[in-house]
Amino acid sequence: MGAADGQRDRRGSGRDEPEATIVDERQAKRAVAAAAIGNTMEWFDFGVYSYIAVIISQVFFPPTNATAQLLSTFATFAVAFLVRPLGGFFFGPLGDRIGRRKVLATTMVTMALGTLAIGLIPSYATIGIWAPVLLLVARLIQGFSTGGEYGGAATFVSEYSPDRRRGFMASWLEFGTLTGYSLGAALVTVLTVTMAPQDLTTWGWRIPFLVAGPLGIIGLYLRFRLEETPAYRKNSEDEQPQAAATWRSLRTIFGRHWRPMLKCVGLVLVFNVTNYLLTAYMPTYLSAVLGFQHTSSLILVLVTMVLVMGLIVVLGRFSDRIGRLPIAGFGSVALIVLSYPAFLLIAQGSVGAVLGGLLVIGLTLICFSSTMPATLPALFPTEIRYGAVSVGFNISVALFGGTTPLIAEALVAVTGVKSIPAVLLVAAGAVGLVAVYFTREPAGRSLPGARPTAANRAEARRRVRDERGEDQD
After folding, report:
1. What are the residues whose beta carbons fall under 8 Å from the beta carbon of 473, sequence distance 6 or more?
2. How many CB atoms lie within 10 A of CB 32?
């Protein structure tokens, strides 16, 4: 057992004083890196898929009309999200039962294989209807494995983080998200600029998907170097998990913890509707709806991501001081008030106006991406944390996040109103505001069912005193 096993600080005035877990800082940093690489790989794929959606529609679907091809492409994108709850139902309780590390290694391998497979599928012109069928199968594999990824990564990092720094450390997960998205988007942009359109459509589009193999190997190596989280080990010592307890875990999650589950779904809704509208839909919206040159559309969204990316960890650190909920609440209000003006600005069509509108949405997004990785795991106790976060997160993503590009495109096609996607953001902001109102502030507190966690002995003694004070209150 290593330093990250959590040294226990027992100094205090009474035998009933809670112990504190001291987490080795180097091990905690490795935990963050290993968890974030999964998000990076997942969103590398999303960045590639979003930026290359127009080409994918031409490669994998019959040449009917451009709108039908795009709708088919986004439908395939959305279908993968519909199986994410199944992945959450399977991998989440498994992570609570056999350990976070083993399950996260499994999801890493499966995600990499699904992404790699897309780059190997022949085109519609070559194998006909089997092309979209195989694309769908690969997307289903990705969706199923991803169902166990985010909840596990957020749980893993949160359980390794000192209570006073959990917001900052967990925010690196979403930094990994935008890093992966930006790398995927940048690679597609470079290929689009440097390759002839015919070559890009024929074979060049496959290159980004084939990169998934090496990324998966790196992520697997990082994850196998880690030990289990102190909170999981302590819970396993105190209460041995049942050998076949998946259905019991789900019954507990939905029966005894339905209130925090509703909060989780609401918080994830506002986070992911904003996320997927900006990252998955806007590149296509700018080119297909507003008539921007395709390369310019890719670059504008990529620039937006790069400009806001560094602020995620800044806000994550800030949330450790003022709390997660004030930042998430501000983001919800901003969506309600600023979404429609942002789309009106984008509709002006000039580069400056489009970039300004995208930045408004991007700055709103980081209010959630900087706070949710530390907020969601704090809703549930240790024994069901991985399962509950995975299930709640993926139910919300499947119903409201992954369907956002499809719904937005359909609304524009039906109404002909270019600013109509703003309605989705306003509605999401309203739901987010309600969820924030009913959520208890988690910043600076121990995770439910876990000891106070600190980076050193002095901080451990302070955390123990704080916990005793809260208990007495």
Report:
1. none
2. 23
